[in-house]
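Journal club prep, shared notes

We agreed each person brings one worked example of a sequence with its structure written out as tokens. Mine is Putative glutamate--cysteine ligase 2. I'm keeping it raw so we can talk through how to read the token line rather than staring at a rendered picture. Sequence first:
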Amino acid sequence: MADIPTLGVEEEFLLVDPGSGAPVARNREVADHAAEQGVDLQLELTSCQVETATKVVHTTEGLREQLIHLRRTAADAAQRAGARLLAVGLPPTLPREFPLTDTLRYRDIGERFGMIAHEQGICGCHVHVAVPDREAAVAVANRLRPWLPMLLALTANSAIYRNADTGHASWRSVLWARWPSAGPPPHFDSAEEYDAAVRMLCQSDVIRDDGMVYWDVRPSEDFPTVEVRVADVPATVAETVLFAALVRGAVMTALADEKRGEPLPPLPPWVLKAAYWKAARDGLDGAGVDLQGQIARPMRALLEQLIERLRPALEAAGDYAFVSDGLAAVAERGNGAMRQRQAWRRRHDVADVVAEAAAATLETG
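Then the structure, token by token:
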């Protein structure tokens, strides 16, 4: 496993009232309770959110064990604080407000960005994969761009929002795109060009600091990794591990292609944006855009094609069978968006959606 890159995962969760399902501003209390159990939860922009972070791992089984432990600990801490932990991209219920976490940085972001910051409660999942250096991270990011819509569709988990079916599998990604440095990453020819772009965004006051570079793939500022941020927080641990395994396989494949000097096909920004929108709307059980033929094809077929493209890397990491079987299982059972809609259609009662999401959050199978 010496040549297989390590990885780590961050997951953001929503805190809701156990009775109404409405977001509750208790992240500090939840973090304090988790700390008593030896788990450090990060406070997110709004005080109805917390974030977990795994340690660096080498295997998907090790990742699964950590994610189960972190979700269980965070859920227990939430319960002790009078809240409920949900792995959802957005609140299913109608929130009264999203109070910001009271830190200097978050207060400043709230003042600068107004309703973009105050209408949040957005929960995503970030996968870090080790790469040799920042040049490699930028090159990998360029090569991952065509695969991001498929990863978004796979993890979509925000169909129900404000007591309504949004008509999108991932409404989170639509709302998230309002930030000036979010969504599909631009192509950069070098780390120098990437850093110059970030400096421009900061110096022109478009973003507050480099921590607000929210593109769906970026070189990490804190770790020697490339960070893939395209996903809604997946509904279950199994889906997060599947997503992380695919991301690592994609990074390994991109590194190998770069080393061989494989040409990078042109990808016009409007085509990528169209593929993103289609993935966000239709999700795993719908159609996506085949970027080679620029036609609609079933998303599951596109994902199966991606798995075969990544097969050498997945086999090297020992993840090919897990990923193939995992996609089939998620497609049969339904990802987060599909399960939300199944729950919603029973009675059009958001309580059913909240209950389904709470159960999925702690599902270990």
